[in-house]
């Protein structure tokens, strides 16, 4: 199952992704008498995602397709606006660490947190802050937590994950280079975290380690690498961070980038992962 959030009449309602477009869950409720939550974040927080996935598997596909808003009329929003936590993972590909003349962590991940005020969605503008002369954009695979959990074993991590998404993470790299303790500030400017347009549930991904993640700059691949080449892979990251603090539905782990692209006004930054809808944002 794939979910998205749309911009519609000043709201950002959840919708089921269909071959022909997307079906608002509010339209499903009205047509079929169901009571699904109206936003992706509410679906996660209320624990409805698994039930919805099972329901969609048995739902009349013809009726769902009749309710679909055509693809050419869709305007995407971020999947949601207020996750309780956004974890980022720095230098998770050895090649990216060498770009920054740094040594990749080998014993524990270089993780950091970002505020939800960084969030933008597909097509929204990335704004380079006046404090930075060199801001970078990084395409990443995002892991979305689906169930409250603590001290999860790596072998059980998939059972607490709702799904995956595409992310473009930004860094004011010149600020970070002044002092590694400036990491939070360099990562936390408004518009520095784009995610969406789709939540792809775990059952839709046969082998997460086989996914290839690419940072895009102006529509071209800047750097590409496979999840299998991460130092710390997604299920391990979920287990590790669950031992730090309780993970909650809607929490996001952005798993690291194969390479950061220096962005300038007029550019378009993006991410491409095979089997996922691309995400891109203009830069000002």
Explain this structure to me?
This protein has 284 residues and is α+β, with helices and mostly antiparallel strands. The chain folds into 2 domains: 2-73, no CATH class; 86-282, Fumarylacetoacetate hydrolase, domain 2. It is 20% helix and 31% strand. The chain contains 8 helices and 17 strands. It has helices spanning 25-32, 40-45, 49-58, 61-67, 94-99, 173-178, 183-187, 234-242; strands at 2-5, 14-18, 21-24, 69-70, 86-90, 110-114, 119-120, 135-145, 161-172, 193-195, 198-201, 212-217, 220-226, 252-254, 260-263, 268-273, 279-282. The strands form 2 sheets. Strands 1, 2, 3, 4, 5, 6, 7, 8, 9, 10, 11, 14 and 15 form a 13-stranded mixed β-sheet that branches. Strands 13-12-16-17 form a 4-stranded antiparallel β-sheet, with no helix packed on it. The protein is globular, with a radius of gyration of 18 Å. It starts with a strand and ends with a strand. The mean pLDDT is 95.
Order of helices and strands: EEEHHHHEEHEEEEHHEEEEHEEEE
Q: Characterize the main sheet.
A: 13 strands, mixed
CATH architecture of the largest domain: Alpha-Beta Complex
CATH class of the largest domain: Alpha Beta
Can you tell me the residue ranges where pLDDT is under 50 for at least 5 consecutive residues? none
Content of β-strand? 25-35%
Could you say which structural class the secondary elements and strand pairing correspond to? alpha+beta
Radius of gyration: 18 Å
CATH homologous superfamily designation of the largest domain:
Fumarylacetoacetase-like, C-terminal domain
Helix content percent band: 10-25%
The CATH topology of the largest domain is given as: Fumarylacetoacetate hydrolase, domain 2
What spatial form do the alpha-carbon principal axes imply?
globular
> How far from one another are the termini?
34 Å
Number of strands: 17
Nearest-integer average pLDDT = 95
Summed up, the helix count is 8
- Count of the separate structural domains: 2
């Amino acid at each position: 199952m794939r979910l998205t959030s749309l911009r519609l009449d000043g709201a950002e309602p959840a919708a089921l992704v269909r071959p022909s477009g997307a079906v608002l869950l509010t339209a499903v409720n009205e047509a079929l008498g169901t009571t699904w939550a109206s936003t992706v974040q509410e679906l996660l927080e209320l624990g409805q995602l698994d039930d919805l996935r099972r329901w969609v598997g048995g739902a009349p596909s013809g009726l769902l397709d009749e309710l679909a808003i055509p693809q050419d009329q869709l305007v995407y929003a971020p999947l949601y606006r207020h996750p309780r936590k956004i974890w980022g993972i720095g230098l998770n590909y050895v090649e990216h660490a060498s770009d920054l003349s740094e040594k990749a962590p080998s014993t524990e991940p270089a993780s950091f947190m970002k505020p939800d005020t960084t969030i933008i969605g597909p097509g929204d503008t990335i704004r380079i802050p006046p404090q930075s002369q060199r801001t970078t954009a990084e395409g990443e695979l995002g892991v979305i937590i689906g169930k409250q959990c603590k001290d999860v074993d790596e072998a059980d991590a998939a059972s607490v994950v709702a799904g995956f998404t595409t992310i473009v993470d930004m860094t004011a790299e010149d600020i970070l280079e002044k002092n590694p303790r400036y990491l939070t500030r360099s990562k936390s400017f408004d518009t520095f975290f784009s995610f969406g347009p789709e939540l792809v549930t775990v059952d839709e991904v046969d082998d997460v380690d086989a996914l290839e993640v690419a940072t895009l700059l102006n529509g071209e691949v800047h750097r590409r690498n496979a999840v299998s080449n991460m130092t710390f892979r997604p299920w391990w990251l979920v287990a590790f961070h669950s031992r730090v603090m309780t993970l909650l539905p809607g929490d996001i782990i952005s798993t690291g980038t194969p390479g950061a692209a220096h962005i300038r006004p007029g550019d378009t930054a993006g991410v491409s992962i095979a089997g996922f809808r691309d995400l891109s944002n203009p830069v000002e």
